[in-house]
C-alpha cells in the first residue's frame, strides 16, 4: 500500500500525523498506529483497496441533501456552505423569533450572507432544510457579568461531595452547597466552582469518580437534598421506615466517605420517600407528583432514556449495557419500550432523583446570586463519560467504540495516560447536528453562572488510545473546533454564563490565543507559572486571559506542597520516576521552597540562598503570602480551592492511583455553615479580597504592582 494514500486517509479522517510534544519536540505517528486508529474510527486501512474505499466514504458532500443537519455561523459574518451552490441561489431563513428573511447567496462560492441575530434558526435552500446556529463572536465574559471593563474578582473551588452538614448522610449535598455559597458571598466571593455533578451509576455504587460519569446530560442523584422540596418531616419519616437512622449517623461521623455504604443507604431511603410520594393522596403529595410530571415532560426523550437505562441496569444486575441482550442494547427497541411499560414505577424512580438533584442545584445557584455573587456556581464539565454508562447507551452513534481518551507522554507522565473514558465521534457529532454536545452544554449551564470545561484542548484534538494498547500507542484525533467554539459561545450567551477552559498539559501552538479571542478563560496554576530559570513568575507576568489558582484537585495543596506530603504519598505508593527517590525529591523540594519563599519576599534577598526546610517558615504565613500573590495578578478571576483557604495538607485526588490513595473520599473538617468562620480562614479570605481590589485599582490606574 502507498504511504501517501495512508497519510491522505489519516488526514481526511482527522488523525494528526505530526505534532509537537510538551517539550516542543516534533513527533509523528507510525504507520502501524495510523492503521490501528483508522480501523477503530471506522475507516479500514489494511490495504490499498481498503484505503480507497475509506477515502470514498469520507469525500466531502457534493449535494445539499448530503449536508449535516446543523451548520454553525458567526454573527455578522458570511458563512461558506458545505458544498458550493451557484451565486444567486435563493434561500429562506426563519429566525427563532419567527421573523422570516429571504435573499440570495452571494460571492463566487455561493456563501450565505451575514446574519445579525444569534440563535438556532431554520435555513431553507436548494430543497433542504437545516438548522443554522448563529453564534456571537465570543462568550459571555466576567466583564459582561460585572458590567465592568476590567473586573478583578475571586471565588472558591469546592469538592461538592466533601461538604458537610448535619443530616447529609455522609456525603455533601446541595443544601450544604447553599450554606457554603451564602457564607462565601458574605466574604466577598463572586463565584463558587464545584466538582462535576454529572449522573453516576445508581446500580454500581462502587464507581464514584466524578470525572468518570454515566452521563454528562444529567445530574448526580446522591447530591440531592429532598428536604428543600419535600420537607424535613417527610425525609425523617422515610429514614425511620427504612431503619437507617443509626447507619446514617455513623456515616456522617466518618472522616472519609464510605461511598458504597453511603450510596446504598441514601438510595434506600430515597426509594422509600419516592414510594410514599407516589402513594399518598394529600395535597402536598399531589403537588409533588405534578411538579415531577412537569419535570419529566420538560426532560423529554433524553430524560426518559436515562431513566430507562437506570432501571434496566438495576433490574439486570449487569453494569455494562454492552453485555445485555441485543434487544436491550438499543434504546429505541420494542424490548426497551416494553420493559419501560411493565416497570413504570421503577423507571419513575430515577426521574424522581433527577428532579430532586436538578431542583437542588437550581436552589443553590439562586442562593448564591441572591447573596450577591455576580457569577454564583461554576459547574465542571468532565472531558468524557464511561462507555458502560447511560450517555453511551442512549446515543451510541455519537460515541466512539474501542477507543478511550488519554494524554500523550510528557514530563510528568512519561508513559502517557489512559483515562478510560469514551470519546465523542467527530463525524457522529456532525451527523447528529451536535445534539449531545449542545445538550451537554445546556445541562452544565442550566444551574450555574459559569462552566469549567475539563481538558478544553479536546475541542480541538483528543489523544485517543485503542483499547488494550498502552497510552503511548495512541494518537491525536481532530475535532471540529470552529463549530464547537461557536456552540459554546452561543450557549454561554443564552445562559449568560462565563466559560473557563482547563488548558493544562500538551497545548497546541496558538490554541490559547484562540480561546482568548473567543472569551474563554484559560487556567494558570501557581506551581507551573515559572520563568526560564525555574523561578516563580512575578504576579504582573501572569496572563490576563486566564483564571489564577493555587492548585487543582490533581495537584498538591499549598500546605501539602510546603510540607512535602505529595512526596510522601508518591514514595509510599511507588509513583516516583525510574531515576527518582524520596531523598532526592525532598532535596529538590527544599530548593523549590527557597525559590517560593524568595518570590513571596518571606526571606531576605540579601541573605545567601540556601534550601529551606518546611519548618523554616510557618505554613500559614506561606499560605497567606501565596493567596495575596494570586490576588494581585491581572487575572480577571482568582479561584482558591477550599483546601488552601483552610490550610489543609491532603489533596483530593492522586493521579495514578485508585484505592491506594483515598481519591474523592476526603471530607472537609467542619460543617459548611462554619467552614469559613475560623479567624485564620477569615483573615486569609480578607487578604485575597483586598488583593483583588488592589489589582482592580492598579488596572484602572494603568499599572500593576509586581
TrEMBL record:
The keyword Ubl conjugation does not apply. It comes from the Bacteria. InterPro entries: GH, Glyco_hydro_77. Keywords: Carbohydrate metabolism, Glycosyltransferase, Transferase. Its EC number is 2.4.1.25. It is an enzyme of class 2 (transferase). It catalyses: Transfers a segment of a (1->4)-alpha-D-glucan to a new position in an acceptor, which may be glucose or a (1->4)-alpha-D-glucan. SUPFAM superfamilies: (Trans)glycosidases. GO terms for molecular function: 4-alpha-glucanotransferase activity. Pfam families: Glyco_hydro_77. Belongs to the disproportionating enzyme family. NCBIfam families: malQ. This is 4-alpha-glucanotransferase. The gene is malQ.
Amino acid at each position: 500500500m502507498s504511504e501517501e494514500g495512508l497519510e491522505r486517509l489519516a488526514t481526511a479522517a482527522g488523525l494528526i500525523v505530526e505534532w509537537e510534544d510538551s517539550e516542543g519536540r516534533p513527533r509523528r505517528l507510525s504507520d502501524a498506529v495510523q492503521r490501528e486508529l483508522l480501523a477503530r474510527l471506522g475507516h479500514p486501512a489494511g490495504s490499498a483497496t481498503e484505503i480507497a474505499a475509506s477515502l470514498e466514504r469520507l469525500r466531502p458532500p457534493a449535494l445539499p441533501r448530503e449536508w449535516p443537519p446543523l451548520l454553525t455561523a458567526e454573527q455578522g459574518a458570511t458563512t461558506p456552505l458545505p458544498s458550493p451552490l451557484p451565486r444567486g441561489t435563493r434561500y429562506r431563513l426563519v429566525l427563532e423569533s419567527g421573523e422570516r428573511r429571504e435573499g440570495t447567496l452571494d460571492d463566487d462560492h455561493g456563501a450565505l450572507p451575514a446574519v445579525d441575530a444569534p440563535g438556532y434558526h431554520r435555513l431553507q435552500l436548494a430543497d433542504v432544510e437545516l438548522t443554522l446556529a448563529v453564534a456571537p463572536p465570543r462568550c459571555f465574559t466576567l466583564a459582561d457579568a460585572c458590567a465592568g471593563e476590567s473586573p478583578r474578582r475571586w471565588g472558591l473551588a469546592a469538592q461538592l461531595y466533601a461538604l458537610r452538614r448535619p443530616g447529609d448522610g455522609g456525603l455533601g449535598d446541595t443544601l450544604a452547597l447553599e450554606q457554603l455559597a451564602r457564607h462565601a458571598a458574605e466574604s466577598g466571593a463572586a463565584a463558587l466552582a464545584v466538582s462535576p455533578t454529572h449522573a453516576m451509576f445508581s446500580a454500581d455504587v462502587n464507581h464514584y469518580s466524578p470525572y468518570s460519569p454515566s452521563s454528562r446530560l444529567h445530574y448526580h442523584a446522591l447530591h440531592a437534598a429532598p428536604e428543600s422540596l419535600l420537607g424535613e418531616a417527610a425525609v425523617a419519616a422515610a429514614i425511620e421506615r427504612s431503619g437507617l437512622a443509626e447507619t446514617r449517623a455513623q456515616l456522617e461521623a466518618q472522616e472519609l466517605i464510605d461511598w458504597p455504604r453511603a450510596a446504598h443507604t441514601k438510595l434506600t431511603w430515597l426509594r422509600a420517600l419516592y414510594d410514599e410520594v407516589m402513594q399518598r393522596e394529600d395535597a402536598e403529595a399531589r403537588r409533588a407528583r405534578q411538579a415531577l410530571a412537569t419535570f419529566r415532560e420538560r426532560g423529554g426523550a433524553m430524560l426518559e432514556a436515562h431513566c430507562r437505562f437506570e432501571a434496566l441496569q438495576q433490574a439486570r444486575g449487569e453494569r455494562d449495557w454492552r453485555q445485555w441482550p441485543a434487544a436491550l442494547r438499543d434504546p429505541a427497541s420494542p424490548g426497551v419500550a416494553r420493559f419501560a411499560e411493565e416497570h413504570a414505577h421503577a423507571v419513575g424512580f430515577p426521574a424522581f432523583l433527577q428532579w430532586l438533584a436538578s431542583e437542588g442545584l437550581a436552589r443553590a445557584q439562586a442562593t448564591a446570586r441572591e447573596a450577591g455573587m455576580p457569577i454564583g456556581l461554576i459547574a465542571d464539565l468532565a472531558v468524557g463519560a464511561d462507555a458502560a454508562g447511560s450517555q453511551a447507551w442512549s446515543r451510541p452513534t455519537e460515541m466512539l467504540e474501542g477507543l478511550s481518551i488519554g494524554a500523550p507522554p510528557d514530563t510528568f507522565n512519561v508513559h502517557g495516560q489512559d483515562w478510560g473514558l469514551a470519546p465523542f465521534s467527530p463525524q457522529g457529532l456532525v451527523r447528529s447536528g451536535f445534539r449531545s454536545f449542545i445538550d451537554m452544554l445546556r445541562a452544565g449551564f442550566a444551574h450555574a453562572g459559569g462552566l469549567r470545561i475539563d481538558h478544553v484542548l479536546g475541542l480541538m484534538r483528543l489523544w485517543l488510545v485503542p483499547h488494550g494498547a498502552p497510552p503511548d500507542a495512541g494518537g491525536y484525533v481532530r475535532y471540529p473546533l470552529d463549530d464547537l467554539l461557536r456552540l459554546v459561545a452561543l450557549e454561554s450567551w443564552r445562559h449568560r454564563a462565563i466559560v473557563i477552559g482547563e488548558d493544562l498539559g500538551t497545548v497546541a501552538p496558538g490554541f490559547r490565543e484562540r480561546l482568548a479571542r473567543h472569551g474563554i478563560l484559560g487556567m494558570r496554576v501557581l506551581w507551573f507559572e515559572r520563568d526560564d530559570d525555574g523561578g516563580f513568575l512575578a504576579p504582573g507576568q501572569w496572563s490576563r486571559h486566564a483564571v489564577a489558582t493555587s492548585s487543582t484537585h490533581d495537584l498538591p495543596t499549598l500546605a501539602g506542597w510546603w510540607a512535602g506530603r505529595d512526596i510522601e504519598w508518591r514514595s509510599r505508593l511507588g509513583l516516583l520516576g525510574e531515576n527518582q527517590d524520596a531523598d532526592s525529591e525532598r532535596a529538590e523540594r527544599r530548593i523549590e521552597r527557597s525559590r517560593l519563599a524568595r518570590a513571596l519576599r518571606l526571606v531576605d534577598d540579601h541573605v545567601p540562598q540556601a534550601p529551606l526546610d518546611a519548618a523554616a517558615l510557618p505554613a500559614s504565613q506561606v499560605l497567606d503570602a501565596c493567596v495575596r500573590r494570586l490576588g494581585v495578578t491581572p487575572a480577571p478571576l482568582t479561584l482558591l480551592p477550599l483546601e488552601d483557604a483552610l490550610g489543609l495538607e491532603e489533596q483530593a485526588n492522586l493521579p495514578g492511583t485508585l484505592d491506594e490513595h483515598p481519591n474523592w473520599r476526603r471530607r472537609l473538617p467542619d460543617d459548611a455553615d462554619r467552614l469559613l468562620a475560623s479567624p485564620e480562614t477569615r483573615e486569609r479570605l480578607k487578604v485575597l479580597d483586598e488583593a483583588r481590589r488592589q489589582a482592580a485599582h492598579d488596572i484602572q490606574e494603568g499599572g500593576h504592582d509586581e
